[in-house]
């Protein structure tokens, strides 16, 4: 059974930092591109960042570029998000999610059916 | 690409048909448009990819149509478990990827 378990969320003051982790199991993590997606209270999901299987290709949303850093450790089946210079508008549930979906022998990058339960990040003084 | 979903809320009864719309600000390459369902306290669940293909184990009452800039999700006959929020997402070859703001399907 597939599991993605996020950790590291919490309450932080504006300008502070947090490091989110996502532990993967039940699938071959090293073969899957991964996303971080966040969802502010009462809002739709927002894609935050993408990392390729080897970590050589990385993208960020403009809203977090220069402040957040995505990384992965395939040996530890783990995904990370380092968040610096946090702002009130970064308050959200942060999900790690697979960014590869395969069906009928074809695979599609950018969507996924493996999601964690999310970890809440609250930026407030 | 900005995705605009309508209506914001649909109030329907079990057994009725639901039609949700997702309009893109520019053409979505190769119809790389997905639909997700989200229930309270849960992560989104992939329903439809490639505008019209159902994901694994998704019932055939969920029907995705459309191309270019106009897409729809139809639930042919609402079951009690279908009352939820639905989001569209574009996943064109290179990020940034975007989601719509959602349509809530509620029990009338």
Short key terms for the protein model shown above:
heterodimer, A: 125 residues, mainly beta, four-stranded antiparallel β-sheet, 0% helix, B: 108 residues, seven-stranded mixed β-sheet, globular
Give an overview of the whole structure.
The complex is a heterodimer of chains A (125) and B (108). Chain A is mostly beta strands. In chain A, 0% of the residues lie in helices and 51% in strands. Chain A has strands at residues 3-7, 10-12, 18-25, 34-39, 45-51, 58-60, 68-73, 78-83, 92-98, 100-103, 106-109, 119-123. In chain A, β5 and β6 form a beta hairpin. Chain A is globular. Chain A starts with a strand and ends with a strand. Chain B is 0% helix and 49% strand. Chain B has no helices and 11 strands. In chain B, the strands form 2 sheets. In chain B, strands 2, 4, 5, 6, 9, 10 and 11 form a 7-stranded mixed beta sheet that branches. A 4-stranded antiparallel beta sheet of chain B has the order 1-3-8-7, with no helix packed on it. Chain B is globular. Chain B starts with a strand and ends with a strand. In chain B, 34% of the residues are buried. At the A-B interface, β5 of A face β5 and β10 of B.
How are the elements arranged and paired?
The complex is a heterodimer of chains A (125) and B (108).
Chain A: E1 3-7, E2 10-12, E3 18-25, E4 34-39, E5 45-51, E6 58-60, E7 68-73, E8 78-83, E9 92-98, E10 100-103, E11 106-109, E12 119-123
Parallel strand pairs in A: 2-12
Antiparallel strand pairs in A: 1-3, 3-8, 4-5, 4-9, 5-6, 7-8, 9-12, 10-11
Chain B: E1 3-6, E2 9-12, E3 18-24, E4 33-38, E5 45-49, E6 53-54, E7 62-67, E8 70-75, E9 85-90, E10 98-99, E11 103-107
